[in-house]
Design a protein that fits this description.
alpha/beta; Rossmann fold; Oxidized Rhodanese, domain 1; 2 domains; 5-stranded parallel beta sheet; 16 helices; 13 strands; 36% helix; elongated
């Protein structure tokens, strides 16, 4: 169950109908492994932590150098010389102490990838070399763990999602790595520091969509960014019938089904009818006392959201609860929190403001 501090921390995310309390609790149970604590891994790890992913693994065998700092924002000047995993772990913990960070100070290889992946639900690849990237892809196919791909150079970047059910793998679009030495490294061609910030953030967004089972992840689609000229294009591709890597994907895969969204709202007109019917319901006002003094709906009970967990046992579980606030944002979170604890709770859409506009103009608006 989410604590009051967590409800406050994730409030702007909880009000998204695609997430809510159930989705936030799903994120808290999730485990994501970030490969590389560099330019891509830095924003990806920080945003996953900020979003409330419960366990984040960081794998990297490198140390922080001054030349890293213009793009690897999880590290600071004082971290120069430290292991990147230690520096990243400290930054994540400072950002969100609710997150468990597991540091793996090793290089990911084809030999250790499978065992590392077993403890996680999803992989975010922030590596900067083909050897690691193909090792991630092949281990994903063997273990059934989806992974989010990202790469950058100069002013450009790419993002996609591989290893999903029936979706293609990295080898479906890039069958074999280029010959050693045939492509320049980031050190040779450079990169604008903000570019991996954008791409890593997109990787975090894709990872959250997969973990939550919402939206349309970039499966079978390669998002290409040209930030120098502000151009974006998507290349579509399919699983190759002759891809030997995809054939190794296990029949049993992790559960990435969408969240079920309950019919949990009530319209002002519906509430007006329910009040007139004198049904067994309790109108619960979770606003602050000063808001209560401005105006209220019917004969509600005041229980400010900040006191909800402490006083929840005082509520009658035999009654249906109609929860409202100013515009319906806080109350949607409170109602879902109550439903998760066995109450029959519904949120008044639009809150007291909409009630005043549509049902009872005598209720002051503020």
């Amino acid at each position: 169950m989410l604590t009051p501090e967590e409800l406050s921390r994730y409030g702007r995310q909880l009000v998204l109908s695609e997430i809510g309390v159930a989705g936030q609790e799903r994120l808290r149970r999730a485990r994501a492994l970030v490969v590389g604590a560099g330019g891509l891994g830095s924003p990806a790890a920080l945003y996953l932590a900020a979003a409330g992913v419960g366990t984040i693994g960081i794998i990297d065998d490198d140390v922080v150098e001054v030349s890293n700092l213009h793009r690897q924002i999880v590290h600071a000047t004082g971290d120069v010389g430290r292991d990147k995993t230690a520096s990243a772990s400290d930054s994540i913990t400072r950002l969100n102490p609710h997150v468990i960070v597991k540091a793996h100070h090793v290089r990911l290889t084809a030999r250790n990838a499978d065992s590392l992946f077993q403890d996680y639900d999803l992989i975010v690849d922030g590596s900067d070399n083909y050897q690691t990237r193909y090792a991630v892809n092949d281990a994903s196919a063997r273990t059934g763990k989806p992974w989010v791909y990202g790469s950058v150079e100069r002013f450009s970047g790419q993002v996609s999602v591989f290893g999903m059910p029936t979706g293609p793998c990295y080898r479906c679009i890039f069958p074999e790595p280029p010959a050693l030495g045939s492509t320049p490294s980031c050190e040779e061609i450079g990169v604008l520091g903000a570019v991996p910030g954008v791409v890593g953030s997109l990787q975090a967004a894709e990872a959250l969509k997969v973990l939550l089972g919402i939206g349309e992840p970039l499966v079978g689609r390669l998002l290409q960014l040209d930030l120098e000229h502000a151009n974006v294009q998507i290349v579509q591709f399919e699983r190759r019938a002759d891809c030997e890597t995809c054939k190794r994907q296990p029949e049993s895969i992790p559960d990435h089904r969408p969240l079920e969204v309950a019919d949990s709202d009530i319209e002002p007109a519906q509430l007006a009818r329910r009040i007139n019917e004198n049904g067994s319901l309790l109108i619960l006002d979770i606003r602050e006392p000063w808001e209560w003094s401005v105006g209220r709906i019917g004969e509600p009970r005041l229980l400010p959201m900040g006191e909800l967990e402490e006083r929840v046992d005082s509520l009658d579980r035999s009654l249906e609860l109609i929860v409202y606030c100013h515009h319906g944002t806080r109350s949607s979170v409170a109602a879902e929190w109550l439903r998760a604890r066995g109450f029959r709770a519904r949120n008044l859409t639009g809150g007291i403001d909409r009630w005043s506009r549509e049902i009872d103009p005598s209720v002051p608006r503020y």
